[in-house]
Design a protein that fits this description.
Elements: H1 2-36, H2 45-71, H3 82-93
Length: about 100
């Protein structure tokens, strides 16, 4: 029995050493991966903002055209006239 205990005691430090080596390797790979992680954006942030603004404007125009011409049975070109919008604002603000 004492022989088994000695073997276990001898194995324990080697297991700890192996675990420490694995931890060191993982730390090294993490450090290397942080160095290699330089990311170049395909679309710059300023261009993304402009694209979002343009898409919002297109959605507003498309929604107004659909709502006024299909649902309201008007003409699509009327959504670009000032009289149409003053009429809509008057209808909304009417008390």
């Amino acid at each position: 029995m004492s022989h088994n205990k000695n073997n276990k005691q001898e194995e324990a430090p080697t297991m700890i050493q192996k675990q420490n080596k694995v931890k060191e390797r993982s730390r090294e790979t993490e450090a290397n991966s942080h160095k290699e992680r330089i990311r170049i954006r395909l679309i710059p942030i300023w261009l993304r903002i402009i694209i979002i603004i343009v898409l919002i404007a297109l959605c507003l125009v498309g929604g107004a055209a659909f709502g006024y011409s299909v649902l309201g049975e008007g003409s699509v070109k009327d959504i670009f006239s000032k009289e149409t919008w003053t009429h809509i604002i008057d209808l909304v603000n009417k008390e």
